[in-house]
Amino acid sequence: MSSPTSDDFDPVTLEVIRMRLDSIVEEMGIAMIRSSGSPVITEAGDFNTALFDPEGRIYAYSDYVQFHIGSGSVAVRNLVEVIRGEPLYPGDAFICNDPHTAGASHPPDTNVISPIFQGAELIGWAQSQAHLLDVGGMTPGGFAPGAYDCYSEALRLPPGVKVFERGEPVEWVRRILLNNVRVPVPYWNDVRSLVASNNTGIRRLLATIAEFGLDRFRAYTRRNFEIAEQVVRDRLARLPDGVWEAEEWTEHNGHADDLYRVRCTLTKRGGQATLDFTGSSPQTDGFVNCSYGALVGSVATAVVPILAWDVPFNEGVMTAFEVVAEPGSIVNPRPPAPISNGHLTTGARVSRLITKLFNEPCRASDDPVLRERTQGVWADSWTGGISAGTRDDGEYFVLFNMDGGGMGAGAQPEADGLDCAGMMTQMNNMLPDVEMNEMLYPVLYLWKRLSPASAGHGAHRGGLGHEFAWTLHGASEVTQTVFAPSAQVPADGYGGGLPGGGSGHLLCRDTDVWRLMSGGAVPTEENLSAASRQLLDINQYDLTVRRGDVFVQWIAGGGGYGDPLLRDPARVAQDVVDGYVTAAVAERVYGVVLDGDHADLAATSARRAALRAERLGGTSPAVAVPDTMIGVAGASVPRRGRDGHWYCPASGALIGTADDWHDDAVIRTRPAAERLAELGVRIRPRSGEPAVLLDEFVSPACGTLLETRVRVAAPEEVGAR
User: Fold this and answer.
1) Residue 511: CB partners within 8 Å, gap ≥ 6?
2) Distance (Å, rounded) from C-alpha 256 to C-alpha 355?
3) Listing from the earlier edge strand, what are the strands of the sheet with 666-671?
4) How many angstroms separate the CA atoms of 561 and 348, rounded?
5) Is 167 left (phi over 0), alpha (psi -120 to 50) or beta?
6) CB neighbour class for 275 (10 Å; exposed up to 12, middle 13-18, buried from 19)
7) What is the mean pLDDT of the chain?
8) Terminal CA-to-CA distance of the chain, rounded, Å?
């Protein structure tokens, strides 16, 4: 059958083939879940599945972990290059996990890639990737805060390591793998589940090609690439051209409590965008370096919900974006840089950065749909806890607690951010059931709840992270690794919304937890006694947790959207009833005075006027904000009038006449941890320089909070505060 011309494509067939590919990669994921015994896969969904063409272009991608878009693509393309000219057979499967040579996001994220043949012709690749419980190295679980190089982190598998040949395990490879991991039985079972996932994809893809014919299949998938690309380019074209710059900061590299710059310049011209990370910090000797695969994946998964929210993902989606990163930088490191937590620290900062950058052209777009793609920044940094030890029955275990994914999403123009939404890059991750973790591991949960101190306040509130506590039950002690990468530099708000809270860990030593429970009491923060309470470092390893200790972890929240004084008082009152905010925060931040479970509107109006005056240094606002603006989306995002001047949309008052409205706003700057603590939001204070600051930009006429900005102090500000 001849290939169709551009005018011959049947739209029904086009959609059927597209949806068939999406169904295949979803079924691959189901096969992995049903064949794996790891709760990281079965409970939390920390994996991806995909189909590629022979050159490594994405046919279809499942939406479990989005930043694997980059690591999976780099892995397939590097494999194609490495094995070019080598014999290849149906039933072969290649394994890789090395961030430097195979593009992995970090060593535990292990790829298995299988060729797809029709007869003797290679027609594509099936790829499955999952986080495996242990991959060797100096620290159980594959996260190595103490590593100074990549050789300490894990067994490094480059592209081209064949783990199955013609459908059978390569025995000598299997022996090497299992000799280098702490939990060989779960490890090998997960490798087999990745192969099973690929085999499912191969069968289903070959059946699809048999149904439509290879030439027709290729033509229609090529057309789907073109359509996806065109939709994204059209939306880019509806954003104003320009250049925008922003930066984020990675905290603590495992050895030193320093801050590492992640900088990006967005240049947008027509339907093309360049994201240039030149100016980011050089690679470091700690485990926060971000592999190039994770960089591309982090960019992709921030861009998709902003500009391609309804576009089925394939190779065409990312064609309009060029990613530039200097080799040897923290976002494109070279050996021997350690990388085991770079995707969850620096990679997550990249996602925040892309969100902030695209907020600017989106807010200036003439397209109302694109204007509504603005948002508060997601917490987007995984808070980790890995426990390893021997149970009372003598069995060794490694618990990578997937509860660390319960961070809050950024608020939206029309809604609060989702609570415990996960990372933007891992939208289909799930939190494990308490009962499942207690069944599989020797831990007993004491509480698991939303954390009110994590939300970014605003007209729309950022999503809350959660907090939980456990004690050992069935083991005398464990070795604990922790990392809390969003502790000091929290997620920004948008349009006057406040930043979210940070993350952290507390270890309560030698508590009375068992005495309380034996007496019938439920342990709580209030009634739990402890010999000591230790706030753990941002990154810490080789920490011993013993029976009778209580381990507490809290997760970061998302940034708010809009001035909190523009939130509907009735919604604030309901937030207090529901436990999302305290009564004190309702009055101090939202200006809502409660009368029982309801807002006292007269007292609230007076309180909000007083807060606006406080923002203006004690001067009453010259212009009032009408009640009709309460709850209106974007009511605190400045707009430029036809005269070129800037106006506050909440009151209509003139902000200023400068090119940049920030120059005419009232600016208040405080240390971020100190200021946010006053507002009921918890982040970790920095003990040294540079300081983390919070800038608040206020309308000089009406006292509306127009923007907040978390930033790191410039050298000239040190000592000037």
Assistant:
1) 471, 523, 528, 529, 530, 531, 548, 549, 550
2) 28
3) 666-671, 692-698, 705-712
4) 20
5) left
6) buried
7) 94
8) 75
Q: CA–CA separation, 678 vs 534, rounded Å?
A: 23
257 phi, psi to nearest 5 deg = -85, 60
Give the DSSP letter of residue 374: -
**Chain-centre distance for alpha carbon 110:** 19
Other CB atoms closer than 10 Å to residue 188's CB: what's the count? 17
- E strand or H helix at 468: strand 466-472
- For 127, half-sphere exposure in the C-beta direction (CA atoms, 13 angstrom radius) is 37
* 3-class secondary structure, 615: helix
CA dist list (Å): 318 to 160, 230, 372: 26, 11, 21
Q: Which two tokens stand for residue 226?
A: 């073109």
Cis omega (within 30 of 0) for bond into 336? yes
Judge residue 710's burial from the number of C-beta atoms within 10 Å of its C-beta, 0-12 exposed, 13-18 middle, 19 or more buried: buried
Percent of the chain at pLDDT above 70? 98
CA-to-CA distance for 607 and 592, rounded, in angstroms?
Answer: 7
pLDDT, tens digit (0-9, with 9 covering 90-100), for 81-112: 999 999 999 999 999 999 999 999 999 999 99
Report how far apart, in Å, the C-alpha atoms of 115 and of each of 53, 413, 566, 613 are.
10, 45, 56, 67
Question: C-alpha angle 190/192/196, rounded to 5°?
Answer: 115
Q: What is the pTM of this model?
A: 0.94
Retrieve residue 29's tokens: 């994921």
Burial class of 180 by CB neighbour count within 10 A (0 to 12, 13 to 18, 19+): middle
Question: Which pairs from 166-170 meet CB under 8 Å and 24+ separation?
Answer: 166/89, 166/90, 166/91, 166/92, 167/90, 167/91, 168/91
Contact status, residue 239 vs residue 268, Cβ threshold 8 Å: yes
Buried b (16+ CB within 10 A) or exposed e, 532-557: eeeebbbbbbebebebbbbbbbbbbb
